[in-house]
Fold these 3 entries.
Entry 1:
Amino acid sequence: MNTEFSKEIIGMRALNLLFYNYTTEMLNEMLSIREFKHCWENYVNLEEQTHMQIWDFFFNKISFKTQTRLLEISLKHYGEEAAKHYSTAIETDIILQEHIKKHDNLKKK
C-alpha cells in the first residue's frame, strides 16, 4: 500500500469524524471561526444530515484558511483515532494481499 499520502488521508479521516460526530463543545469551537459560523447559520438545515452539509460548504464556501483551521480542530479531537484507523487499514490490506496470494497459489496447483 502506498503511504505517500498518509498524512492527508489521516487528516481527511479526522475531518470526517469531526463533521459526523461533533459534540456541542466541538461545534462551539468550530463556530468560533467567523466563516464557519456564517455558513452554519445560513446554509445548514438541522433537519437534514449536517455532516454532508458541512462537507459541502467546506469545499465550496469557505477559504483555505478556514479549512486549515477546521483541520487543526479535527486533528486535535480525532487525530489519534484517525491515525489508528489508517494503521489498521494498512495491516488489513497486508493480510488481504497475503490471503489473495495464498488462494492464487492454490489455484495454480
Entry 2:
Amino acid sequence: MRISFTPDKAMTLKVRYNGEEIFARDLEPGEQTIEIETPKVTGKAEALLVVDGKEIPIATATYTYEDEPEDGTEEEGDGETGCGCV
C-alpha cells in the first residue's frame, strides 16, 4: 500500500489490516510518500490520520489472495489478485 499526501501540520498516520494496527508513524508537515507492507492474506486495509486526537479515515484497500492457505497462516509468494482502493 502506498500513501502520498502533503500534510499542513503534524499528525499521525495509522494503518489497520483486518482491524489490527500494522503501522503508525508521526508525520511533520510537508510532502510524504510512504510504502506499507501488508500481510499476504485476504483482507481490508484502512488508513487513518490522527489529528488533535481524532481518527480520520482517508483510504481503504481490499486485497484478495487466491493461494491463501486454508488455515489462515501466511505463506510466501505474491498471490495478490486484486486491490480496490477508495
Entry 3:
Amino acid sequence: MRGGPFFDAKFGGLPLHPKGDSEPEINLDGREWDVSVTGDGETFASGKAVPGKIKSDFNASFEEYKKLVAMRDGKSRAGTFTTANGDVLMVNGVISGEVTYNNGTVSLEITGKVRLQ
C-alpha cells in the first residue's frame, strides 16, 4: 500500500513524529492463498493468515527512543497512523526487529493487525 509519508502517528500511547522524507512500508494483514489442481482436475484453494506490517523512520529524542526500546517486550499495543493522502491505519501489534537510533532518527517496524479504516 502506498500513501506517502505519515502525517500523524501514535503507537502504544506514544506520539511518533514522522520524518517527511521517509516513505513507509505498509502491508495490510490478511490471507495468502494457494490454488491447486487435484489429480481429477478439480481446483481448490488453501490460505494462511499473514500479519500486517508498518515500517518507517521517525524523528525522536533519545528519551523517546528508550521508551520504544522498552516496548519491545512482546506485548501487543494499539496505534493509529495517518498517511499524507488521508488514509487512516489502525494497528494492533508488536515492535518487531531492532529499534535503531541514528542522529535523531528512529527506524521502527511493527507487525500484527494493520487495517485500513
